[in-house]
Specification:
With 168 residues, the chain is an alpha+beta fold. The protein contains five helices and four strands, in the order ααββααββα. It has a four-stranded antiparallel sheet with strand order 1-2-3-4. It is globular. The relative contact order is 0.18.
């Protein structure tokens, strides 16, 4: 005889603990690395690490690659609302997912989004510090949350393109 509650399976399907744990881990790692950079560097300071990689403290007040950066007082709230709508939509979508890859991908995306949302309320913008460059050309600086989001989206694309079996 099972000791589980009747609603337990539905709860685990709705918000798998592994996905939530991964999201929390990503958000914590993101915030920890940003705290270290904020304590170690001044705004705009560039610390060479290799011939193609620097640490640099910048604040992104826009979205990806600094798009939509402006000083409107309401813009951070709009960007936070959009991020939280996406997080909510992903968590609702996750209900119907049983495969591991979409759950992992969702955890990465949600954790990254939450990490960047925290910055919008606690910093002048999203803290970016990873600066890759080649022959004087610099990729826009980014952070751990951005990496998690990109990897998560990539995993969702791979799952959508190559996973076998029925799709919900």
């Amino acid at each position: 005889m099972s000791t589980s509650l009747p609603h337990e399976a539905a709860w685990r399907r709705f918000l798998p603990l592994s996905t939530l744990a991964l999201a929390a881990g990503v958000a914590l790692a993101d915030q920890a690395t940003k705290a270290w950079v904020l304590a170690s560097l001044t705004h705009g300071e560039r610390v060479p690490v290799t011939g193609f990689f620097n640490l640099v403290l910048t604040y992104n007040r826009g979205v990806a690659f600094g798009l939509l950066a402006s000083d409107y007082w309401w813009k951070p709230y709009l960007l936070v609302a959009i991020a939280l709508l996406i997080v909510g939509g992903l968590l609702v979508w996750l209900r119907g997912q049983v495969a591991l890859l979409p759950r992992l991908a969702t955890g990465l995306i949600v954790g990254g989004a939450i990490g960047n949302v925290i910055d919008r309320f606690t910093q002048p913008g999203v803290v970016d510090f990873l600066d890759f460059h080649l022959s004087g050309y610099h990729w826009p600086a980014f952070n751990i949350a951005d990496c998690a989001i990109v990897v998560g989206v990539g995993l969702l694309l791979l799952d959508g393109l190559f996973a076998s079996g029925p799709k919900r």
